[in-house]
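Data deposition worksheet. Section B asks for the primary sequence of the deposited chain exactly as it was used as input, without tags or linkers unless they were present during the calculation. Section C holds the resulting structure in C-alpha cell form. Section D is free text for depositor observations; keep each observation to a single sentence. Incomplete worksheets are returned to the depositor.
Section A, Depositor: J.P.
Section B:
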Amino acid sequence: QVHLVESGGGLVQAGGSLRLSCAASGRTSGTYAMGWFRQAAGLEREFVAAIARTGYSTAYSDSVKGRFTISRDMGKNTVHLQMNSLKPEDTAVYYCAAKRDPAVFRGSDFKWYDYWGQGTQVTVSS
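Section C:
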C-alpha cells in the first residue's frame, strides 16, 4: 500500500503564497505520476495540476494556470504545489493523488489515480 501525506496548508491573505507538499511512503516501488485536486465546501472535487512520472509533462486547470506551479523531487516520489497570487476562491481542501507506472498521462482525470492523500486545508481570506 502507498500512503500520501500532504503538508503546507494554512490560512493566507489574498495575494499571498503557499507551498503544498506531498510525500509518498510505503510500498512505493515503481514510478508515479502525481496530481493535485481540490474540493471546496459544497462543491465537487476539481482538478488543479498534475505532473508526469518523468517530470517533463505538466497540466493545469485554467483557473490556476499562471499562478500555481507543480514540481517534483525526482526519485523521491514527492510533489510540490507552489501557489502564488492566491484568491479567496482558491479556498478548499487540497488532495494529493498518485498513479503508479502510468502508460499514458491523464493527469486531469481523478478516476485515473490509484492513491489519494487525506487532504490539507487552504483558506484564503479577502
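Section D:
The two ends are 40 Å apart (CA to CA).
The longest strand covers residues 18-26.
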